[in-house]
Amino acid sequence: MGMFTKDIKSMEDLLMHGLQDMYYAEQQIIKSLPKMIEKATNRDLVAGLKGHLEETNKQVERLQNVFEKLGKESGGTHCPAIDGIIKEADEIAGEIEDKAVLDAALVAAAQAVEHYEICRYGTLIAWAEELGHDDIVRFLTTNLNEEKAANTKLNTVALRKGVNRKASSAA
């Protein structure tokens, strides 16, 4: 089912597509976070990414609960947006030799992912509420709140924990 194709005939179809999109996205994030953790050198960044990997696994479980509540099989649909964000992050990270600058790039890449997730979860919550699926809203809201908190932590790492400052004084 592609976004805005003939497969989407109703708001229910649109909600289901969005849920499948996020299920796929979360799976891709689980695959990419260990690579980011391996490349990161700032200890606060490493700790934050590790913590978010654990959260992301729980978010997938919550999405599985959402599918179950809706009486649907859990599964993802290809999400070119998250693939593009991850691909760009991989390409940029592969080009940066200075570790301080790499850490700043990793923070930016992680925030791009968080912003995408915040946008999508917010939309899914609005659609679920409109369709009367109050039983899934709390799962989606918990995921949204975790994504917002992860973004705030990344801001803290970049600004208060010195990642940006250290990167700005690199070579």
TrEMBL record:
<dbReference type="InterPro" id="IPR010287">
    <property type="entry name" value="DUF892_YciF-like"/>
</dbReference>
<protein>
    <submittedName>
        <fullName>Ferritin-like domain-containing protein</fullName>
    </submittedName>
</protein>
<keyword id="KW-0175">Coiled coil</keyword>
<dbReference type="InterPro" id="IPR012347">
    <property type="entry name" value="Ferritin-like"/>
</dbReference>
<dbReference type="Pfam" id="PF05974">
    <property type="entry name" value="DUF892"/>
</dbReference>
<dbReference type="InterPro" id="IPR047114">
    <property type="entry name" value="YciF"/>
</dbReference>
<dbReference type="InterPro" id="IPR009078">
    <property type="entry name" value="Ferritin-like_SF"/>
</dbReference>
<feature type="coiled-coil region">
    <location>
        <begin position="46"/>
        <end position="73"/>
    </location>
</feature>
